[in-house]
Structure formats: structure tokens, C-alpha cells
Amino acid sequence: MTADSQRVRFGVVGIVAVSLFAALFARLWFLQVMTAPEYQVAAENNRVRVVQEEAPRGRIRDRNGRTLVDNRRSIVVSVDWQRYDGLDEADQNALLGRLARLLSIDRARFPSGAAASTTSPVPPGTPPGTPPGTPAEGIVDPRPSAPEPVTPDQLRRRLADPRFSHFKPVPVATDVSEELEVYLAEHSEEFPTVRAERITVRNYQFGQLLAHVLGTVGAINSDEVAAFQNKEKPYEVDDEIGKTGIERAMEARLRGVPGEVRYEVDARNRPVRRIGGRPPVPGDDVYLSIDINLQYQVEKSLAAQIKATATQGDNCDARGCFDGPRSGSAVVLDPRNGQVLSMASYPTYDPAAFVGGISSEEYGALVAKENLVPAENKAIAGQYAPGSTWKLFSAYSGLANNQIRPQDTVYDPGYYTIPGCTSGRCEKQNANRLRIGTVNLTSALTKSSDVYFYKLGDEMWRRRAEVGDDALARTYQQWGFGTPTGSGLVGESDGRVPTPAWKRAFAKDLYAEDPKKAESYGGWYSGDNMNTAIGQGDVLVTPLQLANGYAAFANGGTLYTPQFVLQVTKAYSGSMVDAFAPKPVRTIPMPPEWRAPMLEGFKGVTVTGTAKDTFAGFPQHRMAVAGKTGTAQVNDKLDTSLFAAFAPADAPEYAAAAILPEAGNGGDAAAPLIRRILEPLAQPYGLKGLPPAPPGGGFDVDAAISEIPAPPSDTGD
User: Fold this and answer.
1) What confidence tier does 71 reach under pLDDT thresholds 50, 70, 90?
2) Same domain, 351 and 479
3) Torsion angles phi and psi, residue 358, rounded to 5
4) What's this model's pTM, rounded to 2 decimal places?
5) 3-class SS string, 390-441
6) Four-residue CA torsion sign, 34, 35, 41, 44
7) In the predicted model, is pLDDT for residue 553 greater than 60?
8) What CATH code is carried by the domain that includes residue 674?
9) Residue 175 has what pLDDT?
């Protein structure tokens, strides 16, 4: 080997060594200088855990500032499902057995503050002195009538309930006692995976009052996370979110900005110490258009009217005997701006039962108790045939389509014979075939002449080549029927305005396997037009739609979107965040020569017409009431009772509608209910003069029944 070759070899080794060291130093420089901030953040993240702290929701208040919903502290027992799932079956069974016994003892010792998945055996709003387990009248409550032992099976079902995420502790009992909280802390080795903690939950100041409008909150699901997730107020799995009512409609305002708690953790991800964070910011306060004092009057009157009507007489007719009404709803609006002053649905429920989450089993018990859905807001979701209350809109359609003139008269012998009819069913009659005599537009409304409106519907069908086969429907739609009102509450139904096209499509879908039958049943005839004109047949409305339609007539033709929210303010500061103005939808042409005779007809209803007996003695001199009774026939059921009204008739401040299924004639139940609602408003101070709703919202239904006006004599509607 020559000296030159040796030098070459050493040179190569040197170059390789220098290159390796250069690469190493370059990598070190890259890691320590170029990417140091990035790795520092990563290291910090490995050392620090950030836990989101849910913010208190904003308060909900009425138009006068009375707090309806706020927050309170509750002690909740929960189970860490991940750790629980890691136990073997024998340890799980033993743990649930011990926990069930402990919860049962706590529930028995402190019945007002302990319950697995419940709150109190005496619902808020129950009159003083009511024994535990007796709900206030009209409240459907799934909770036991007396404290019952908690069983391990109940706890298992709770842990398996799909509404609760397994990535967060599953609540198994709410509102437990402080003694239980301390005991669990001191005996944690006996109750692995179990913990008691204090959380903020919704507090309902007036019990069941306004439950359907206020709504409920519950654990967020994956669909809601996708729909509502945002950077300003982020959601985590099992955070609470508004589910129904105002809680849902105003979720973005009521939800606060979550806080953060930062923990230093060790290599095993165990908390070492708290190292900072930021506090949560409460949600904004929402002020409603609702007057809670009026709401108390409406709900008390509705519950009393339903109970009284169900016990009057034997409710028997040629079709058989019936139990009478079990549900109903009422709405009061301000026709000048569309503000909802009151909305009631019966039966109601205690929203406190939903605090901490209600299980599928408990909700099933709530529904089964009355074979109804108490949580359904019948004022917006219920759909009913409007009966003769519909004649306002049919009369307007006749005027708008040049079918009738206010001064034209019709002779009403109690029945209408369809011209040219050869089918053998050629007569349609008034209720009880009552002969009314000669009527014009005004008296046809006052006396509720079906014959007048049968003739209107029949002749408009015969003129279909001129006015169109859906002339009635087009006019009804102007008044907001057939579509939701846009109130913003979840669950609002469309109602239905039938047309020839709708009937064809419906029959085609119903008889998809029999085209001939679909064609036969899908035809639209003069009889369909006549039934529709008197609010029967296939037409359906919600109570809110009906009240809103009458409000539009009352104010001269402006249809508003019903308004529930007046303003939003910063929590506990009162500083304005947003104010909500009335929302006109459209103006319905209302010439004075049309409106005046119709108004006289509606004013006559409570003086000489179908509701005269109901309103006998009412202070008409202080507040004249204009309105319309309605009686809608339903197959195999008692008639539906309806009444829609506005007052004072010549300068309306209130528009109201009530619908009580299976309650009989419009004058028997719905009209007395509206009278009870309006009579206190006829006093000199109106809304401001109403007695305050008591805390808890409870009332004595039997005492309220004595205030109901006697039912009128049979007037045929």
C-alpha cells in the first residue's frame, strides 16, 4: 500500500466523519432552534390537560321581568362508565347492589332531595298541603307516588341508556343529599367509579306553567353537535343543549361561553395540580312576550274547563257514550304586533322531571299515564278541523272571488239541496237541521248558518272555470293556513288546506296498488268544496294558526309572524344585546265595505248569536267581544269544541283561540274558556291588573270549576 493510497483512504474517512457530524449538528440545530417552539407546545400538551367547564345558561324571563327559568346547584351521583366497564361482572354486580341500597336509603330519608333520575315526589306547583306523590291537576308526572327502592336493574338500564356517552360519567341520581355526597367521598374504596359532584341545573320558578313554551334541555347528541358546533361556544359530548321550546329556539343566546380548567398531569396522565384556566361566561337573558300572570289564568281555566266538561252529563248520543275531553289548548295574542301573550297545552308536565336527564323508561311511563304525549305542545302541533270558526276565511274568499256581496241574502230552511244532484245524497243540513231563515253575510256569521256557506262553496265550484278549482284554498293560504306560522318553536305542524291536486296525490299514495280506486277516491266534487267552506272535510288547523288568523282580521288585515321573544340582555347586567321587532308577513286586502259587516257579525255572536248565553253578564260595555263558535265533527268521537275571539271588538288588544277535542259544541266548552280568560282583562287595568301568579304555579282545579259560566242552551253550533 503506497503512502498516497493511505492518504486517500484517511481523506475519505475524514470526509465521511465530517459529513456525519455535519448532518448530526444540522439535525440538532433543526430540532433545538427551528422547531423548538413546536416541540415545546407538544411537550406542554403532554404535560397539561384542559377540561372544558360548561357555563350556566341564561335566564328566561317574562315580559315584565319576572324570572321563569334560572339555575340552581344540584348534587349528582354519576358512574365513570370506562372504569366501570373495566370491572369484572361480579364486582359490577356488587358495586351496583351497594349503590342501589345507598340511594334507596337516601331517597327514603330525604324524599324532597333524593331520587335516582328524579327530583321530588311532590312536583313544583302542587297546592300547599297536597300529600307527597299527588301531582297538581293537569300535570302528568312520571315519578313514583312515594319513594320506592332503587334497584340494580334500574342502574344498569341507566348506564346502558344510549342517550348518555360512555366518554363522560353517566348520571344515575340527581338532587341527592349532602350526607350522601360526604359518605361517597369518605368511602370511595367501596364505590370505585362512583362520584358525587355539584352541578348547575335548570330551575323552574313556576312549576308546570308554560312548560311547553319554555321547553327542556338535555344531553347533546351527535346530530346536534354537527348542527350547532361553533368556535365561540364549543360543545363537547354530553354538554347540555336546548331540546324543545324557547330553550331550543334561543339556544345560541342562552348558552354561555364555556370556561377552561388547566391541570398539570404526570406521565400516567394523573392530575398533579391545577395551573390555571378561565371562568365560564353565563349565557344571555331572554325576555319573552309572555305574561306569566295571564298564563296562570289561562292554564288554570283550561284545566278546570276540561275537567268540568268531562264530568257534565253522561256524554252519550246516538253513536254511544264517550269520556269527554282529555286534552286541549288555548292561545292569546296581541293582534297589534303578533306578540304571544299566553300559550297553554293540556295535559302539561313538570319540566323538573327532565332535570338530569329522563330515561326512556320514565318517558314511556309519562306517555302511558294518559295515553297522550304531555310534552307535545298541542297549541302548535295539534291539528284539528276548525268547524264554523273557518267561516271568517270562507266569507273572505267569497268576497275576494266576487261570489258574494255583504248585502245579498240567502234563505236558510235548515238544509241545502245541491242543484242537479242525482246521487241520492243531495242534502246538507245545519246542526240539528235548525231553520234560521233569511240571512245575509252579517247574520250568517252571527247565527252560524251552514246553508249560507254550503251555497257559497257549491257555487264557487260551479264557477271553477272562472275562479279556478282551488279558489278557496288560495284565499285560505293568504291567512297563513297550510304552512307553519314561523314562530320558531320546534314541532310546529303545517295544518292542511286541501285542494283538488292534494286530494289526487293523497289518493294515489293511499291506493298505490289500486290505480282505479285511487282515481275514484281522488276526485274533487262540489261536496268537497262545501265541506271545506264550513271547516270540515280535510281542512286542518293548529290553535296558533287559528288565533293568528283572527288576529289578522282584528287588526285590519296584517298577518304577523307570532312573536315569543322581545329582547335579549347580558346576563345579570340588563344591558341590551338585541331587541326583536314585530314581523309582518303580508297585508291582506280588507276594504271597509267587507270588514264592517263581517265585524258586526262577529260582535253579534256574543250578544244575540251562538255564544250569547255564555257571555251573558260579561262586561261588554267595558270590553265588547267579537268571536265565532265552532263545532267540528270527528268520526267515532265527540265533537271538537272551538272558539276564536278578539277584544275590544272595535280596537282589539287581544285575540284568542281555544280548541278542546271531544268537548262538544263550541258554546259548551271553548267559549266559556275564552270568557274566563278575557273577563279579568276587561277590568280597568287589563293585563297590569291581573293577580300575580303564585310561586310554583299551583292551583286548585275544583275551586276554579266553580268560576266557569254555565253552559248555554243548545244553539246548534
Assistant:
1) very high
2) yes
3) -110, 130
4) 0.84
5) HHHHHHHHHHHCCCCCCCCCEEECCEEECCCCCCCCCEEECHHHCCCEEECH
6) negative
7) yes
8) 3.40.710.10
9) 85
